[in-house]
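Researcher: Before we compare anything, I want clean individual predictions. No alignment, no superposition, just each chain on its own. First chain goes here; please echo the sequence and then give the structure tokens.
Model: Echoing the first chain and its structure:
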Amino acid sequence: MTENDHNLSASPYVEPEDTREVIDITELNDEIKITVVKIDKLSAEIDKIVAEIEG
């Protein structure tokens, strides 16, 4: 009790529940790769449209 400045509340003595989400890093990296490919494709399409407009 002296370690917690004589605090009688239960909260300093109870460890909070771990609510963090477990993430599969391999799956996340695969999703990121797919997203990057989509972004690159859309960027190329936008560049093509802009080139046609400036054309």
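Researcher: Okay. Second chain, same rules.
Model: Second chain and its structure:
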Amino acid sequence: MDTKSTSRPLTFSLSSSADSSKFGPRTGTLVVSRQGEGKSVDIDTPALLTLEQDPPLPTLPLSATAPNANAHRLHRHLGLDPSAHLVSLVLRDPYDTRDIPTNGKDFVSALCLRGVRKPDIVLALADEPTPSHSVNQGQRTGISQKRLTKSVERGREWLAQLLAAVSRSHAAPAAPTAIPPTTHTPGIFVSLVGSNSPAARMAFARSLLEPLSELETATLGGLKVLDEGVSGYVVDLVALRRGLAPTPIPASASETSAATAQSILSTASSATPSSPPIPSPRIHEHEHALLHASLGPLSATKPRLVTGTNGPHDILRLVRDVGVDGVDAGWAVQAGGRGVALEFGFPAPVAIGSSTENGKQDIEKQLGHNLYDVKYALDLRPLSGEEGVCACIACKPVPVPGEKRIVHSEVDVPQRDGDGATRDGERGGKAPYTRAYIHHLLHTHEMSAHALLVAHNLATAGRFLEGVRRVLDSPSGGEIAVDEEDPRQRNFEEEIQRFEAAYAELDEEGVMSEAEVMWATVERARGKGRLGREREKAELKGASV
């Protein structure tokens, strides 16, 4: 287990892990030290990464990348507290599945510019190959061996160039300059490439452990192997699943059928930038084997981040079968953009996963509510279903100092309980926003609706991972023999089964698809404009006469 050291800018320590497997569920703490400030940011894992898909910096001029002595300028620009937040910008959106031009030897293609100077964590560029554009029976032909080899070589070379650039930034300049050498060392995470080939993924992982030559060691600041300069590992699930899509996954003769293979292909090929594909169980099993191939040769004490997850079910499988330490929250942000308020918890409430008198499981509950639906027009409950559960700005808004309630009628009078106390006074703040109010905001195209929903969904996802950590950190009940199953892991597995039985997956067949249709209907009505709608009504009225 790693020990926290003040000499390193980023450390990761495991507080619990499955004793019998390298890929079992585990908890830990990621510590990012603020060099020169004597402060650090502690993050408990499994943790949630908040993904901002429309950043406030659409372009970055060269002048903004010039060295500057002022620290945390980006934190202040975004309104974030440097003592509590880490900022990491990537060149590519991990949820964007659109085709892009091929990468070159000395450059990488990107659809937009998302760079930043001296972030807390840097994700090294990865040359993720995409299936060939040539078509065979209506399907892409896959990725050639030559392309896979080039991807592995470029990934290693780009990481070496990044580590060399960091080493040069610490060296004293040959001639006096106004800007001194930097003392900032960001944590560098490397993307594990190799697409759908276990051999290619393992080859890339082993290349990080190969001894460097004397010249390379001198260039890279004394590193013996590239992995010494790496703080953690990243896996892009969207790119991995795209690599799995063209070719059906091998299975036994009894399991293989043309219909099943076609279903897997159609599911994976229907992905859009806003909605990643929902893999079938067979794809899940195969992709976990690919992740094992990438992570197997590497250190188990460094944090593992995964981007492109599809929802809480996907996260639970990755925590259980791979032992990931961080996942992004793109699915929660997307749900808020579609008008869906998430409502779920881990462990699943007993009432949801209970059995009926006939011994059959209750119908799976959706993970959220489609607030575009007219049934929420008069629903005065908060987004979380009951007060006090969620502390987001929608369920527990903070009153503005000096703010007074405007009472237009008796309806606006604060509600009082049996003791005569108002609900506002009882909660120490404003009353929560109701589902009916958010429903109204959505149908009137108010941006605040999506802001409130995204804030609520991120808080829900955060509580979900708090529950995961609480279950994993629960007492194991004594020493465990080597050949026995870890009781903590067994308990976690039982809770996952209860969760899967209680909640339907956040896929395109449930609340998300329903919300997408209603969202499109409202957007089309908005595009017509009021005059256009009135003109249509007049034409219909004239035709009826």
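Researcher: What stands out in the second chain?
Model: The chain has 15 helices and 13 strands. Additionally, The longest strand covers residues 26-34.
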